[in-house]
Write a structure and sequence with these properties.
- The protein contains seven helices and no strands.
- The protein is mainly alpha-helical.
- The longest helix is centred in the middle third of the chain and has 26 residues.
- The chain starts with a helix and ends in a 5-residue tail after the last helix.
Length: 160
């Protein structure tokens, strides 16, 4: 990808990618760092096919966020309070780690469709138009996302 192509993508989509990252990791400061990581990874990748730049960047952002959530989950498990030696676990870190764990169990297309619909508020038709998948495929993946997410969430105690 050329510098001009990357600049054009950044100017057009940086705010949307930042919002996606902030929603996934729950922190504006982390989203700032992740935004830069997304565009560094994008620079090293082949350019997206015509018309799918936002979905492609969302996919890159989602992978960057999952990597951060996994690292946060590992760090949270190993963090110790200095005064008592007890594990330090915040509700937000637990929730983020659980969401990351649940989403890792789903295939990439199912995650992508579910996140585009639930986090970004896109309709099934908009997802189909932006991603190039058929409306029927989007509907099936969205239904699978909802069923799987509810099952994994309930099993992990996320419903409380």
């Amino acid at each position: 990808m050329t510098a001009d192509e990357l600049t054009a993508l950044y100017e057009r989509y940086a705010l949307l990618v930042h919002r996606r990252c902030r929603r996934l990791v729950g922190s504006s400061a982390d989203a700032d760092d992740l935004l830069h990581e997304v565009f560094l990874r994008a620079q090293r990748s082949a350019p997206p096919r015509e018309g799918s730049s936002l979905v492609w960047l969302y996919r890159v952002a989602t992978h960057c966020c999952f990597d951060r959530l996994r690292a946060t989950a590992r760090g949270t498990r190993h963090a110790q309070r200095l005064d008592t030696g007890e594990p330090v676990v915040s509700a937000d870190a637990d929730r983020q780690a659980l969401v990351g764990m649940v989403l890792r169990k789903l295939d990439a297309l199912t995650c992508e469709v579910g996140l585009l619909h639930h986090l970004d508020g896109l309709t099934q038709e908009e997802i189909a138009a932006e991603s190039g998948y058929s409306r029927k495929t989007v509907g099936r993946k969205l239904a699978l996302f909802e069923v799987e997410f509810r099952e994994h969430w309930a099993r992990a105690g996320g419903a409380s």
